[in-house]
Amino acid sequence: MSIQTAKPLSKVSNKQLKRLLGSVFYHGFVSALSIVMIYPLLWMLASSFKRKDEIWTKASSLIPEQLNFQNYVEGWRGFGGISFTTYFSNSLLITVLSTVLAVFSSALVAYGFARLSFRWKNVWFALMLTTMMLPIQVQIIPQYIMFSRIGWVNTYFPLILPHMFGTPFFIFMMVQFIRGIPIELDEAAEIDGCGKGRIFFTIILPLIKPALVTAAIFAFYWSWDDFLTPLIYLNDPKLYTISLALRSFADPSSVTNWGGVFAMGILALIPVFIIFVLFQRYLVEGISTTGLKG
Amino acid sequence: MRYSLENIEQRALPSKGAVLKKLSKRRRRDNWIGYLFIAPWLIGFFGFTFFPIAASLILSFTDYDILSGQPNWIGLKNFETMFFKDPRYWRAVKATLYFAFTSVPLKLIFALAVAMLLMRGRRLVGIYRALYYAPSIVGGSVAVSVMWQQIFGNQGLINAMLRAVDLPTRPWLGDPRTAIWTLILLAVWQFGSPMLIFLAGLKQIPSEYYEAAEIDGADLFAKFFRITLPLLSPVIFFNLVMQLIYGFMTFTQAYVITSGKPLDTTLFYNLYVFNRAFSDFDLGYSAAMSWVLLLVIALVSALMFQLSRFWVFYEAGEK
Asked: What is the value of ipTM here, to two decimals?
């Protein structure tokens, strides 16, 4: 027995051993580093399950003494008489509407740029590309004056409406995608008497589904995480989005319930993570090809 | 009517003028439909980008504050105040530049190192990539900013760890020397996007180059500096420009975590613009500040494109 096991062992060449060791070292290092990377998130998750006194007295421990859902229950009750049901539904409403509008309008515009010919097309396209780099602060002050003159402060219009007009990043990504579709498909449909509108809806739209999904993910993220726009336009706590609510909930001058803050923070991140896990492929594709920021 | 050759030709082919007429008619129709499709963007561009930016420029020459109502033309006074009379403005500039020019290089170096590390592995790379990208996916959210504030808080995770090994603790967020570094660290932590872009770039480099170099006896060092870096330079350049612009525009993290404190060391440019506009209602002054930022970003981008000629290497046939 011992001879039998010793024999193959001795056959393991130096090279193989070296490779094995290298692999162990590699995976050990890479996974250790990845744990360091997600450690802060794990810490928040652990803290959300800890007892209130335990959060700070045992801050360095990652494992709560017992799974305690108290923070979730108390946190959900919110503050000022408004529970997190309100904040989550507000955010969901704004995010879903903005996402649908942004993706659909971007697809329309992208089809126009990719397939139709019209005067000054290249000028407009170049102009669109430059707007991708503009700091929003330059636009936000006059926009605020405009919206407050119409009386749209404390409404969701300033948060949703601008998405109706397409997002340059998405338009650019979709244009690239449409260019990859053989134009013969369009031409065949045109010979059969299809108008541009029908070509767009029946041929292009189904074929650019991956680009639509990518755009939808980013639109969802940007809208869900957006802080500046709601901060400017929403003063009424009943209208707050989840970002605004978290910020008010975690106000260091008044807060005592950090467990609740962490629990609600975790809940706010859950939709983001679910989408990440389900659609990772589209996300990676979107970032690698256009440099979209996640 | 007798069929002559001429006649047939005439009948089969419409005259040149007719063809052109028909074509231009079609083009005109196309023109119309094209504009119909891009109409959403066009309307948005004029309504939400072009007009506001132009209005911003005009506002920057006024003393408009939303409470008193009427804007008065005051010429260059806002800019004069900004450059010569407002020490907070220069502190904001300093904080922003310090933040952008430390966090971006660190972030890119880290992103490249991790990307190269992930290129070597075959198995589990998908999982590693997801784990390394996870912080970036949540990084811009208020939830993570609040978490960061508590991690570096006096009773927070970092101090608890230091206490556990008997090292001196620090008020990380209250100390003017360390506060900005917590924000830099948060930015570097979100290295996911440049990492993915580097990964895509690294996969484009043909492995034959490395094999050939190995035959010539190149070591890891030489391979990195002679093959990887030059061939990756367009990607590095792209990441550098994008990340610098994002760095200049950082807002949420500074607003939530430090609110510009202590001693304005984390008063980022956009935070100051926001405070002047929406706490002090000095819309004219903040419009002037945002216009200066716009010009600086345009200038920096242009400068980087000019300088890129000297170090960015495009393969023949590419661009």
From this structure: 0.85
